[in-house]
Amino acid sequence: MVKTTQAEELPASVTAARARPSSSLWNRIVRDKYLLLLLFPGLMYFIVFKYIPMWGVLLAFKNYQPFLGFFQSEWVGFDNFRQFFQDPVFFRLMTNTLLLGLYDIIFFFPAPIILALLLNEVRKSFYKRFIQTIIYIPHFISMVIVASITYLMLTTEGGVVNELIAQATGAKIDFLTSENWFRPLIISQSLWKEMGWGTIIFLAALAGVDQEQYEAAIVDGASRLRQLWHITLPAIRGTIIVLLILRMGNFLDRGFEQILLMSNALNRNVADVFDTYVYTVGITQGAFSYSTAVGLFKSVIGIILIVTTNHLAKRAGHSGIF
Predict the structure, then answer these.
(1) Are residues 34 and 111 in the same domain?
(2) Is residue 69 part of a domain?
């Protein structure tokens, strides 16, 4: 009796599949062609609007002259970056941007978490949905409207808040032009406008918490505060970490429109940030290469912050985003 080898015992289709792995990949592509077709619009969006424009960062290393064009403009290397770092305005921009970013992490980032935890304690679904609807509305209001409301409320010339302060103390506070009040106003606007909208992700995470854990905790005599500390917060900790990592990528993004609308000649020293500076030197002064270098510097810092925060999160035993 002739012994057959292992390859001869296998079906012919399996042997052919092993011999042609690319054929198997092609078969999966053909099988899932409609799903891949749904992916095509999103893929094209990122290619056209995200990846192709990345060639524009080369302007940061050129002395771009519009009449010469992109390719004919002189290559200057890191001269634009040296000019920016040696400019006295760099330290002012860095200080203002870092302080606003720090206030954002301290005050704004925890606010949706706290609000979501409070909403999670509301047992009547009608009241819960009503509160959610009310706090979501400011998200859909334009920042121009928010700045206008802020002006009407706080102006010294008939502002409601200042009129009440004047009646109580006999003096008015110049909120809109004071350097000391600029950063609190920016953070307050962000809280009012986006705090409610930011609760959506955390409420979704809270909805996935196993209710049997709460029932077991009640049987053991745990108070609502202990349930919050030992069950609720650990359940959404992963979501908090991931959002914090993503938030750090936007640490230097302070909202160009908001800062531009709230800044004026009297609070300019604390209002200037990287975003408004890029607009000023790039659009109004035509320094395209210099402004591109500033924007690229900000983006590189954002990438470093994301990688560092992700690394620290994984070192602490949490799952990062990569």
Answers:
(1) no
(2) no
